[in-house]
Design brief:
Length: 355
């Protein structure tokens, strides 16, 4: 079935802007692949929500290339035009996760989305974080400067709020650390000026994309082959990343709970290989019932060292996370959050669902 676009003119305009941003990022990664890798370009993959009736998405992705361990740039546009009892009218998003192959090049995560409710209210979510296996202070400073330039022109205090919420959201209490080294996060962000907010969201995204591409280019220019110690540091960090995404990331769990039609795409955020034994060693640090979730995650991973996250493994992990929160809805309160708690799952529900 053909994908049906939302009726909202704002949602359609945002989709076009996010398509352009996706293309910008993909072109930059393809350039780096030609410059530092084997020239393998990003490949397209599409998915549909309810056979396209309620929208869908298009990813540009790469796995196991000379440049990229794993990368996924996903644009999605979901709507409920034919279901007026849903709180949500439309949700349009760009989610980008890049894990370079070389340990000296940092991973990154970027998300920008527009949510429009049936009431007519709307708001933006913008997130960005730099995730190095081997931290470099100059890269962190460059990313923080990118956040500042990306939010230039926003109301006073917006940058400070974004940095504070990012630090809160990407904390991993069980390990006493954060997922990355530079974080920004705004939830349900709106100044009341629709055009201004959209321009700022695009500006933020462009700036973070361009900053990241420059950081990776600098990290790989003249870089020698990775050492064994560097590869070990990368594997350990990728394992931390998986722990945060699957046990704390509210966006990931919400996506899996809302529907099961893009499980592998949602878990495109995960790197290709993790250390199963290291994950197991963290079990005593997890509070219940998240200790059971982590045990189920470990059980779903191949016993080989390292564990390779094939498409089948990603699908199994998605089902593990979904089943856990369906059985333990109270555990959703233990997930990461900023100052504003988004009612993502409830927005996809209807009054009839709750009766």
């Amino acid at each position: 079935m053909t994908l049906i676009a939302p009726s909202s003119s704002t949602a359609r305009r945002v989709r076009a802007a996010l398509d352009d941003l996706q293309a910008r990022f993909a072109a930059g990664l393809d350039h780096l692949s030609s410059r530092h890798g084997d020239g393998t370009p990003m490949a397209p993959a599409a998915w549909l929500r309810d056979n396209g009736l309620h929208g869908g998405g298009r990813r540009l992705e790469a796995t196991g290339t000379a440049l990229l361990n794993r990368a996924s740039l996903n644009v999605s546009a979901i709507h409920y035009d034919d279901l007026p009892d849903k709180r949500l009218s439309s949700a349009t998003a760009l989610s980008c996760i890049v894990h370079p192959a070389h340990p000296r090049a940092p991973s990154m995560h970027l998300h920008v989305s527009w949510t429009e409710l049936r009431s007519g209210a709307g708001g933006w979510r913008v997130m960005g974080d730099l995730n190095p296996s081997i931290p470099v202070e100059a890269d962190r400073a460059r990313f923080l400067d990118g956040f500042a330039r990306g939010l230039a022109g926003a109301p006073e205090g917006t940058l400070e709020r974004a940095l504070a919420q990012g630090d809160r959201y990407f904390a991993i209490p069980a390990l006493g650390r954060h997922r990355g080294v530079a974080h920004a996060y705004l939830e349900q962000w709106t100044s009341g000026d629709t055009a201004r907010d959209e321009a700022l969201a695009v500006q933020f995204t462009e700036t973070v994309i361009d900053t990241y591409l420059a950081v990776v280019d600098g990290a790989l220019t003249g870089a020698p082959p990775p050492t064994g110690a560097e590869r070990a540091a990368q594997l350990a960090y990728h394992t931390v990343y998986l722990l945060q995404v699957l046990t704390l990331d509210r966006g990931t769990s919400s996506g899996l709970l809302v529907h099961s039609q893009n499980d592998v795409g949602i878990l495109g955020s995960l790197p290709n290989r993790v250390d199963r034994a290291l994950l197991t060693s963290w079990l005593p640090r997890m509070d219940p019932p998240q200790d059971r979730l982590l045990q189920s995650i470990v059980d779903a991973l191949p016993e080989a060292s390292p564990s390779v996250l094939t498409t089948e493994v990603r699908a199994a992990l998605a089902e593990v996370v979904r089943a856990h929160y369906q059985a333990h809805p109270e555990a959703l309160a233990l997930q990461a959050r900023g100052d504003v708690l988004p009612p993502t799952v409830a927005n996809h529900a209807s009054e009839r669902d709750e009766r």
